[in-house]
Amino acid sequence: QVQLVESGGGLVQAGGSLRLSCAARGIIFSIGAMGWYRQAPGKQRELVATITRGGVTNYADSVKGRFTISRDNAKNTVFIQMNSLKPEDTAIYYCNVKSVTITTIPLDSWGQGTQVTVSS
Questions:
Q1: Rg of the chain on CA atoms, in Å
Q2: Which of 44, 48, 83, 89 has the fewest CB atoms in 10 Å of its CB?
Q3: Mean pLDDT across 66-90
Q4: Chain-wide mean pLDDT for the chain?
Q5: Is the Cα dihedral 32, 100, 3, 108 positive or negative?
Q6: Measured distance CA(1)–CA(66) in Å, rounded
Q7: What is the largest CA-CA distance in the chain?
Q8: For residues 5 and 78, what is the distance between their CA atoms, to the nearest angstrom?
Q9: What residues contact residue 44 under an 8 Å CB cut-off, 6+ apart?
Q10: Are 97 and 24 in contact (CB under 8 A)?
Q11: What is the spatial distance between Cα 108 and Cα 98, in angstroms, rounded to a whole number?
Q12: Alpha carbon distance 49, 68 (integer Å)
């Protein structure tokens, strides 16, 4: 079992910044890709950004140039720095971690979600 502990959400004015963190806890043999997704009211969950263990990143077009994803492999933690926030960035943000157990079973784990609200 992998538990994901998210932090850093909140309320911010348009143009402001927030930094989200997500730490993976538990008995983990190996962690692969980590990422952030978001779900706004009435919409489907969508990819925000992902990062491989080697540091290769991928971003949704809507956040390119404003958000930066990073990770600390030693601490099994992924971050996302969100700058120049817009009201349309308002959503619940979910951390996602792909890992492998010590018995080589692949896991796809999700955090509990953290609310990000951007006021205009």
A1: 14
A2: 44
A3: 97
A4: 95
A5: positive
A6: 33
A7: 49
A8: 10
A9: none
A10: yes
A11: 5
A12: 8
List the beta bridge partners of residue 2: 26
Q: Is the pLDDT of residue 102 over 90?
A: no
What does residue 17 show for φ and ψ, rounded to 5 degrees? Answer: -135, 150
Place of tokens 């980590």: 34
Q: And the tokens for 24?
A: 């993976």
Say if residue 1's pLDDT is above 90: no
d(CA 3, CA 61) in angstroms, rounded, equals 29
